[in-house]
Amino acid sequence: MDSVHRPDGGLRTEAIAAPPDDGASVPQDPSPQLPQIDRPQWTAPMVRPRERRPRAGWRASAYSVTGGRWNPGLSAKERRERDREARIATQLRGRHVTAFFCLKGGISKTSTTAATSIALSDLRPDPVFAIDANPDAGDLAERLIGEKLSGITSLAHDVDKVTSLDELSRYTATSGRLTVLPGEPNPTLGNSLSSRDFENIMHVVQRYYSFVQIDCGTGVTHPLMAGILRFADTVVIPAAWSITGAKRAAESIEWLEDNGFEDLARSSVVVLTAKDIVSKSVDKEAVTQHLWKAGDLIVVPADPHVADGSLLEWDQLRPATREAYLDIASAITGRFGRHHR
Fold this sequence. Notes:
Layout: E1 2-5, E2 11-14, H1 57-65, H2 76-88, E3 96-100, H3 109-123, E4 128-133, H4 140-144, H5 152-158, H6 165-168, E5 173-175, E6 178-181, H7 187-190, H8 195-205, E7 211-216, H9 223-231, E8 234-240, H10 243-258, H11 262-266, E9 269-273, H12 284-289, E10 296-300, H13 304-307, H14 319-333
Parallel strand pairs: 3-7, 3-8, 4-6, 4-7, 8-9, 9-10
Antiparallel strand pairs: 1-2, 5-6
């Protein structure tokens, strides 16, 4: 160590390295190396996955009585139900429009739209918006709200003035978590709506809602239909659970194919709703085979609450009917991402 005088008169001690000897290098001790341990490509999780808590039956009772110390797990039936609920709640990336469409009326088209919209709105994290686009005095609001309301014609007239969700809500009604744009009770005014009117309405609605359900009319030549099908990602074809109903559904699929909507035809969901007990002389297997072009075929059993035509209340439906509508909702969300446009 050498001492060096500082300008202020003090001393500063510095370490001065000595030059290495000629031809010699100073060896440096390498850092100790840790032993290399081969790690497996996959390691088991340290926390065991928990069995889901049962919600019904003796399994739920056993879980409650033991304070959760014994969890017998889900039955096969409840596991299927939970999996279906998860599919219905699938995250929607982008937008999705479902059109409920058939060439013939009077076959529970509005009931199917209403019940399926309720099922979706109850189980999905995002809001669901239902539109009554039937120009011939549609009654979707009556089935969902219990009142005869109008909204679509007024919104078409004022569409340029709607710049916020609050302004849009002046034309809509709500049922739980479901928002409804009522149709036009006056058939004369309803028939005045054009394809451009519908497109303008959809451009406003889709600013605030990504999941839209549309109850269509039966007039495929009506100007509204061209606008609706241009927006549609999925078509649900409701028909009667009968020979005639199956033929009407098949004709609806063929109409889609013949008019440039082949993708919608291939992915269509056909819903056969039973009004009464089907005669034993009807070959049900032959009826379903007649609809082989459908993407999915779902049968809704006869239910007096559906047949009444009044306010549709989910809890008043028979269990088998609720199951069928949940299957329709699952079929719709299973088509997310299949954009034909």
